[in-house]
Amino acid sequence: MTLSTSRRNILAIIAVLALSAGLAMLGADSASANGNGRVIAVTGVASVDNEQVLVHIIAVVNAGRSDQEVAEAALRGVNARGLTASDYTLLANSWDQFSDGNAGNDYVVQRYNAIGEPSGARAAIDLSRATWNGADSPFAFQVPMGATNICPSLVNECKGRQAFDGNNDIAWMKLRDANTLGVTWSGTSTDEADVAFNTNFTWSNDDPASAIDIETVALHELGHVAGIGHSDVIGSIMEPVYAGIRRTLTADDIAALQAWYGSTGGATATPEPTPDTTPTATPTPEPSPTALYVGTSSAGDGVAYSTSGRNGRDLIIEVTITDGSAANTVEGASVSIAVDDESGSYGTGSGTTDANGTVRWRIKNGASGTWFTTVTSATLSGLSCGDCGEVFGYPG
Ligand SMILES: [Zn+2]
């Protein structure tokens, strides 16, 4: 990023990586789980062997119940508490073998317990593993999975004491909380992750109308196994909703994986095709954007101000660029702004939008007084800005 100031030299520019991690309770998307109700995701913290473990739960909200009730019941079912702000650092778990300088161990070994599995489950989970392996990253699951008949040791429904046993297991079982679809347990310092799918539900590979799609949920849970938290990017695999079949990683999911493990520079050996046997599951192609917009092109929604720093003295200017719909933020767009204060031109800034379509600038000791931001240009791949030039004031 570059910056020039016309009047003062205290205008500083920073890029803030947006936190796309799990919240204590997310959801809110009114996706239907095939007549079972809406689906929410809950991330909690529990303790195993004196280590904090993360528990990612997907649960169904039936009619007449609130998201909060279902989230709390799901957490109780695993003896976990919800995440608090201070827990976000816990989400920084990735597999150490990818950074030890030894390429010979660069895979995650998993074992599969077929007891109680729905028809076709193994094949669907193998496809979801192959999808993550096909992303442009050194991260990989070892293929094929080994077999086990042991209950995953981190899953609290298994008999005996919850423990790290050095194995990463996937199993089907009746989970205590009736609304929980699936759960991933992972260590915060020990590299181990166990997954359980709830046999209380009807699962399928090819019946999206009346069953939960195995590959879709497995793809999400395996993202947690890889170390990825939730995303607020609509349509992403790591978005904490179940909204029907989703079997393809989005740019956001791949960016999250690459944030941990880097990329292979596009040299992915075998992009695994994901056969889709379901005619109704044809993904809707994204419409090609014709222009970029500040927010959704309705005035004022693409520039946000907040204060931070000591005593809230700094002013943060946040600009979000989309292709015109609220859902489709644009990554990698070059954005320039001009900032005025009460006495006129204050300075200019430029930057590139992050994975959430956002660039942020900080004005030190700029919180009081009146400010005006004009997005002077936003460009990406030949697209230009459809509504640049509007002035966004602060406060109000
Ligand atoms: Zn999740």
The mean pLDDT is 78
> Can you tell me the CATH architecture of the largest domain?
3-Layer(aba) Sandwich
Instruction: Give the structural class.
Output: alpha+beta
Number of H- or I-type helical stretches: 4
Taken together, the total number of domains comes to: 2
Strand content: 25-35%
CATH class of the largest domain reads Alpha Beta
CATH homologous group name of the largest domain: Collagenase (Catalytic Domain)
> What does the radius of gyration come to?
23 Å
Main sheet characteristics: 8 strands, mixed
Give the overall shape: elongated
Which ligands, by name, code or SMILES, are bound? zinc ion
Extended strand count? 20
Low-confidence stretches: 1-35, 268-281
Helical percentage: 10-25%
Question: What would the CATH topology of the largest domain be?
Answer: Collagenase (Catalytic Domain)
Distance between the termini: 28 Å
What are the secondary-structure elements, in order, as H or E? EEEEHEEHEEEEEEHHEEEEEEEE
User: Order of strands across the widest beta sheet?
Assistant: 5-3-4-9-10-8-6-7
List keywords for this structure.
396 residues, alpha+beta, Immunoglobulin-like, Collagenase (Catalytic Domain), 2 domains, 8-stranded mixed beta sheet, 5-stranded antiparallel beta sheet, 28% strand, elongated, disordered N terminus, binds zinc ion
